[in-house]
Amino acid sequence: MHDIRLIRDDPAAFDAALAKRGLASPSAALIALDDRRRETIAAAQAAQTRRNELSKEIGQAKAAKDDARASDLMASVATLKDAMPGLEAAEAAAARALDDASAAIPNLPDTSVPDGADEDDNQVVAEWGTPAAFSFDPREHDAIGPALGLDFDTGVAIAGSRFTLLRGQVARLHRALGQFMLDRLVNDHGYEEVAPPLLVQTPAAFGTGQLPKFAEDLFETTDGRWLIPTGEVPLTNIVRDTILSEAELPLRFAALTQCFRSEAGAAGRDTRGLIRQHQFEKVEMVSITTPDASEAEHERMTRCAEGALEALDLPYRRMLLCAGDMGFTAARTFDLEVWLPGQARYREISSCSTCTDFQARRMNARYRPAGEKATRFVHTLNGSGLAVGRTLVAVIENYQQADGSVAVPAVLRPYMHGLDAIVPQG
Question: What topology does CATH give the domain 119-422?
Answer without folding.
Answer: BirA Bifunctional Protein; domain 2 (3.30.930)
